[in-house]
Amino acid sequence: MPDPTLNSYLMLSAVLFAIGTAGIFLRRNLITILLSIEIMLNAVNLTFVAVDRYLGATDGQIIVFFVMTVAAAEAAVGLALVIALFRHKATLSPDAFTTLKW
Amino acid sequence: MPSPETLAQLGVIGFTFFMLLNSAAVLVYMERKVAAFVQQRYGPYLVGPRGLLQPLADIIKLMFKEELRPKAADPLLFYAAPILSAIAAFAAFSVVPFGADTDFFGLLDRKIPLAPADVNVGLLVIFAVTSMGVYGIVLAGWSSNSKYSLLGGLRSSAQMISYEISYGLSFATVIMLAGSLSLGDIVDQQAGTWFGFLPKWYLFLQPVGFLIFLIAGVAETNRAPFDFPEAEQELVAGYHTEYSSMSFALFFLAEYVNMVTVSAVATDLFLGGWHGPWLPEYLGWIWFLAKVGFLLFFYIWMRWTLPRYRYDQLMEFGWKWLLPIAVINLLVTAFAVAWWGF
Amino acid sequence: MDAMLFWVLATIAVTASLLVIAQRNPMYSVLLLIVSFAALSGLYVLLQAPFVAVIQIIIYAGAIMVLFLFVVMLLNIPTEEPTLERRWATGAGPRRFGAVLSAVLAAELYWAISSIQKTDLPAGVPETTVKDIGVRLFSEYSFAFELTSVLILVAMVGSIIIARKEPPRDHA
Known about the structure:
The complex is a heterotrimer.
Chain A: H1 6-26, H2 30-55, H3 59-89
Chain B: H1 4-38, H2 54-64, H3 75-92, H4 122-143, H5 147-178, H6 183-188, E1 193-194, E2 198-199, H7 202-205, H8 207-220, H9 232-235, H10 245-270, H11 284-305, H12 311-340
Antiparallel strand pairs in B: 1-2
Chain C: H1 2-22, H2 26-46, H3 50-75, H4 87-90, H5 92-114, H6 130-139, H7 142-163
Helix pairs in contact in C: 1-2, 2-3
């Protein structure tokens, strides 16, 4: 079994990113859309750390630290929005919110 | 054929696992006896000499009980929850060293740490695995599909994540003093004495930190006086209402092993681990056991002495008192380390 | 040994992520995503980045996912309902188009990555200690660090305000 190269890590990251994108297009549930966004952010994190390992630097890992923090903030605000929307219309399908009326 | 060091390490891992299981049994007995003496009665004394075989009887009883599951409960999550709790409890102990590095009296070529694994980021691993322990409780509460369980599960997990922050801040101060995240290094920094008699434990440098760690640890393990979520008088039995037989035993086991982990980590961080007077280095684990035993006794003593906090009092205490004190403690320690070079 | 671990963890991560987007029950989706994060954490350890691996578990699996789980439990979200009447956005056609777009993205990325020559990871790289990261974080990246603390404060205050119930209106 061949050792993993930088290409294999980048490939894995690309596959995860594509899965996240597919999730955003295909799912009609706000929570799952947020989860797909988290998958994409994780794929990006993996890219950063893999290239970091290749270059022997630590900048990538620090960027990952910031990406995680921003993802946490974004998840918190996103979920607050989901709660507010659900409280208003009792559904989690994004199609219920297509008109700009509240 | 793997090297003798690898085999010895595997042996240490197996031994630790075995001893954790035994410690849960010992704790069952200790809890009932201490509770009995606090309440001026005898406690178990029929089964075996002085009731020492009582835990065995308890385990056999639990094994023979019927395994019930409510019809509307989600089967996968219902059975996965106690397993998850137990896994997190055992995994947290995997980076805690309980003795000095040893080469088993020359049988091995080099010394191995007496811990299942002594990684460089050990303290963070404990924190990470403790955060994962929340899931067992949340899933138990949710999957039982019963209102007592759901409320108990939600309250319990909210309590655990609130006290995690103070928990983390209190050991951030120890990290600053020791300059390392590895528990083995932290214990080694606490060897020796000042003025010949005062041991160099971080307890004396960080008394506030030790208190915060213990309080947060008790809240993390859902023990009294912070055990509102599983209090019998309030919520039937909280998140493990619907569980019986071995699933319940797994929750029980997870709670006791969590207690042992918190005590062991407190011993390593603040009480000098396995260092102590009068005993040679390779018998240091006796001191470790004594210190952990004392902390466990303290845990049990607290449960049967103090009244329970109400849930809102508990949350207010965690956020409005413990967290600011932990932050101030961190700032003061940071100043002390930066200016006086501790 | 390393190679086998990589393939095992990569398979777990990809399968779990696929199941996340394929599952109907949102509770299972969240739990499967936690599994995926744990696999990624293992991959970070393989990449000699133990600090990132541990904070992945602490932040993502231990905090963000607990938040998701609480929201799923408290809102008692039912398993996904069938599509609503607005066929132009949710019908089979547009969804298939979305799936095709994602497949196109995957194909493009595959082409881009396979045109890089095969680069091996240098062997014998020591694992990045927390000290290295700490030193760089607080010297070169200190401004970004302070900004993230402001960001987290803003996010906390914002999410509390957005999610709270309407305060009772004052009676004039």
